[in-house]
Structure formats: C-alpha cells, structure tokens
Amino acid sequence: MKAFAHEELFKLDGDVPLVRAVPYGVQHILAMFVANLAPIVIVAGVAGLGAEQTGTLIQSAMLIAGIGTLIQLFPLWRIGSGLPIVMGISFTFVTVLCGVVATYGYSTAIGAIMVGGVIEGVLGLFAKYWRRIISPIVAAVVVTSIGFSLLGVGAESFGGGSGAEDFASFENLLLGTVSLVACLAFQVMAKGKTKQLSVLFGLVIGYAVAVLMGRVDFGGFADLQLFALPQLMPFTPEFNVGAIVSVTLIFLVSATETIGDTSALALVGLNRDVRERELSGSIACDGFVSTLSACFGCLPITSFSQNVGLVAMTKVVNRKAIATGAVIMVLAAFLPVISAVFSSLPEAVLGGCTIMMFGNIIVSGFQMIARAGFTQRNITIAALSLAVGIGFTQVSALFGNFPELVQSVFAQNCVAVVFLVAVAANLALPREAVTAKAAPAASAEAAGAAPAEAAGAAFAEDVPVEAVSAEGPALSEAAPAPATAAAAPVCAVPASAGGPAAAAVAADAADDEQASALS
Fold it and tell me: What is the Cα–Cα distance from 146 to 142, expressed in whole angstroms?
C-alpha cells in the first residue's frame, strides 16, 4: 500500500490514497443521509404522491446531493466554493413547499424551485454587494422562525401524516414514541462522533417495530430492479407568480444559511476567514444546483451544518476524502432498493425523529440570538420580527384586504414575514444603541477591567455566532462563544430538514466598517 502521511487529511489537496479516503467520505454520508431524504418524504406525502413516485424522487435526492457536493469541492467556473462543503436537500423549504403543493400541486412547486434557484444562483455571483445586510441577529431570528414553522409538520408526521385515515391512532402514536425514545437513548449512550447517527438509529428501531406491527407496505418492493436510472423531468413544471415569490423568499433565507456554513467551515477547518470568491461560489452552487434538482423533480439543495460540525471535530478537510462520499451518494442513486426502503417508512416513525430535529432548530436559533448579543437594538429586531412574523401568520385574516398575491406569499409563511421584517428593521434602526455602550466599556477598562471584557460589552453585535442551519447544529470546537458544547442539542441531527442544520450567519459590521467573525 502507498505510504500515507496522516497529516495529508488536514490539507485541502493532500495526497490521500483512495482506500484511506473512503472511510472519511462514508462518515459524511452517514451524518446527513436521513436529513437529505426526509424532506422529500414529507412533501411527497402532502402532495399525495404514490410510493413509486416517492421512490424515484428519493433516488434523485441522492444523485443531486452527490453532484452538489462535487461541485462545491471542485468548482465549475464561479459555481462552487472549492471547500469541503457537503450538500443535501434542505429542510428550510419544507413548510412553504407543503403549502404550495397542497394549494397548487407538485408541478407548481417544481416550477417555483426552478425560477428561485436561478435567482439565488445569480445573486450568489454578486454576493459581495449585498451580503452585509444579513447581520447575525437577522440570521438568528430567521433560523428560530424556521424551527417554529416546522413544528406543525413534525407533529402531523408523528400522528401518521397529513390526511391519513388513521391519524393519531394508538398505533401511530406508539410508533412515533418508540422512534423518539430510541433516538434519545442512542444520543445519551453514544460516544463522540457516533452521536450524529442518533436519528438513523431511531429510524431503524422504529422501522423494525413497524414491520412487527404489520404497518409497513412492501408493495414498493414488487418487481424491484437491481439498477435504475433517476428520472429526468418526472413532472412538467408549472409557473405561478405567488408560488414563485414565496419560494424565492425562502431561497434568500437559504443563502443566509450558506453564508454561515461556508464562513464557519473556513474558520474551523482551515483556520482562516472565508474568501469572497469562496462565499460567492458557495451561494451560486446552492442556487443553480437547486434548479438542477428541480429538473429531477427534487426539492432545493443547501449546505449541511452537521457536516461542518464533523469537520470541526475531525479537522479532516481533504477534498479527495470528502469527494469519495459524494461519489458513493451518486452511485447509491442507481440502487432502487434504498429508495424503496425509505419510501416504505411509516410517517409516524419519521415524525418521531424529525420532531426533535425541528426542536433543535429552535434551540439553535436561541443560541444564535444569544451570541449576536442582547443589545437593545438586537432585542428590538428579534422581538419585532418574531412577533409580527409568527403572530400575524397565526391570524391569516389580517391579510384579507391585501391583493391575492400578497396573501399567497405571506398569509401562512411566517419565515418569509420574519425575514423581511428583520432585514427592514436591521436597515432602519440606528446603530447608536451599540455605540452608546462604548463609553461605559472604556470607563470599565480605565478602572482596571480587562480590555477583552470591555470590548465584549462595547461590541456585543460582533460576538461570533455558531453556524447553524435548518439542517442542524454545527458543533464547532473553535467557537469562542461560551457554553457552545454545553448547549448542544439533545438529539443532534445526523443529518436538513435540512439540517441541519440549520444556520446562516452573515458578515456584518456593528459600525458598517468591521466584519463580524463567524464560527
């Protein structure tokens, strides 16, 4: 066997033999496998797609995740970051897409994803002109709202799925509880990196119990082929302005997540700040590959924070090692048995695991708000955006006098409302609330206080924020914020809904001159 220097794994382009690289690639697949496929199952269930159609989409999800990861690793022109970023189907879009498919149908969702992906991709190419408007507090409240918006989705799955005839039956509640308890038990007992497989373990246990209870439909295994090609354009796209606007707004949210994940990865994996070219390419990949995903009938793709966390723990950034995992995902897309197993998974089993994943997103958002700093300005932005975004969409009649387009975009889409209110407040509110603290800080320093503590009080908005997306938390060892490890989620997403998980932190300056550090 070729001589191997272990430190090559810690270099982007280190010379690592294939046999040595594969285990690290497989590790990344296991960390995101469930969250990559779960959004498809949830949205397909709401759309009323059959097991065969769902299985085809699951195949495509694995293909797109592999392709997206390879483009991030080895950019095409200006698309891709060149960093070891793992891509997968995003949980961020689940709520809005469930609404779109329920109202207009799955084909309309595909059309909206195609358009929204192109818009995000183009914006990514020009990211340096706009990304600073997404401050840490904006990203934090958006991630929090994503978590709240997904709780209903998780609860419906726990009960057996939207529209199920046996919804909330004893059998469904039992399956959901078994899966949840298995997930929690594994999280408590597992050691180190294996904790990331807790949701996968919960799904396996829940599936086994469902088989014993006779709750698994094996019809999808009839006449199953050994190999099959993912289907191109399985749905004819339809275009609706309201659906396009709704989905495009969430693409902007997804871009903020990608900013945070990319910045965090450069910091914890390469010990340096992210470069403008890397950030731009990462967002462009997010968008354009999402459009490609729609061509295969799939949902949008995004970076996965749990894989950023894996890099933080292992420090393995070698692109060749990560690429082996991406290639395995592409090859798995040609094996229908994988999609058949996952599409036969009872909704209640999936709900038992995803309900904790969605709860983790909310907690991650709270952590990010704390790390952004509890200045009066940040408190105002968070309180206003969450109150208006979540509160108003709970009473959709408030939008009754608005044009139909506005109603279709905002009436039941709390994430879009929170995002717009947070951005508007961030731009409108004066920054004197931060600057005003500089004087007390200086006085404290003069009185003998530690300079670092004084600086922390003066620039609370510049506190580094843990990169967490809707796919799940990134467990960064390098995060300077206090109690990061102690605040780790109870049931870390192995995987984005996605992530995810899952969130974005954009560089911003407390005085428009300093860029915030990201972790």
Answer: 6
